[in-house]
Write a structure and sequence with these properties.
Layout: E1 6-13, H1 20-28, E2 45-52, E3 55-61, H2 68-71, H3 78-85, E4 89-95, H4 102-111, E5 120-125, H5 133-143, E6 148-151, H6 157-170, H7 189-203, E7 214-222, E8 228-236, H8 239-246, H9 251-268, E9 272-280, H10 288-293
Parallel strand pairs: 1-3, 1-4, 4-5, 5-6, 8-9
Antiparallel strand pairs: 2-3, 7-8
Helix pairs in contact: 7-9
This protein binds guanosine-5'-triphosphate.
Guanosine-5'-triphosphate is lined by residues 14, 16-22, 125-126, 128-129, 153-155.
Length: 301
Amino acid sequence: MAEKTYSGFVAIVGKPNVGKSTLLNNLLGVKVAPISPRPQTTRKRLRGILTEGRRQIVFVDTPGLHKPMDALGEFMDQEVYEALADVNAVVWVVDLRHPPTPEDELVARALKPLVGKVPILLVGNKLDAAKYPEEAMKAYHELLPEAEPRMLSALDERQVAELKADLLALMPEGPFFYPEDYAKSDQTFGEWVAEILREEAMKRLWHEVPYAVATKVEEVAERENGVLYIKAILYVERPSQKAIVIGEGGRKIKEIGQATRKQLEALLGKKVYLDLEVKVYPDWRKDPEALRELGYRSSVG
Ligand SMILES: Nc1nc2c(ncn2[C@@H]2O[C@H](COP(=O)(O)OP(=O)(O)OP(=O)(O)O)[C@@H](O)[C@H]2O)c(=O)[nH]1
């Protein structure tokens, strides 16, 4: 029986230089690879994935709250609210070395509509370097009394671990957004995509054909319209297999391509254009060079 999993989104917000990146990096620890350039949407930018046991947090950035001064003009910007409204928790970071500034007030105002909808954790950071942390914290808390205050240093492992545990506990039940080993593996994004393509191809092929299939991603490009363009090759060993993979009227390859695209779009949360080609690579399974080229680094023989 499958064990229950818990997963959700957490936004880390706050004015510049308060320590958001430091905190995020230390929450993620060594296990997680930052995935910044890939899954970008206009509303949210993924900053990292944390998976611990059966719990997963996808940390997101909220463009618009990053530089609150810029957001002043369009303060009621619906997009900011929408981006924040569907996260499972907000971490609002402030700098305890100083009292609040107008920029902090702007962040507080932007968060106000979320009160009662999403837990807001007010993290007073740089506790190690603050002279009057209690006073500062009190002033920040007054900007948004509904937020749950805590003081820490993003550089303190134990304090960050406590915050991490609390955030993980806030995640609702649900399937992981990313494969469990995704963030931990040293796979490149292309290798990860190639594996998903191979999985979808194998599901739809019979007899010896599935094992003759290898996949490779040749190009990944972020298009201006927000679509992720992916060029991938599906290799087989013989022309007869190529015909099977393509299928009558190209039906089989279309099916494989669509399933792959759908899975990628669901995992990445963005539109994908998959440019898929079938090529014959004679006896690639017996060719050490081919194996290396196709990413089977050590599994010759
Ligand atoms: N003493 C101390 N310094 C910290 C702490 N957390 C972060 N810093 C320092 O504060 C500075 C800003 O940290 P960042 O993590 O870059 O801040 P940020 O909020 O991500 O900044 P932006 O990317 O400009 O929004 C860096 O020099 C950090 O080393 C802390 O807990 N204690």
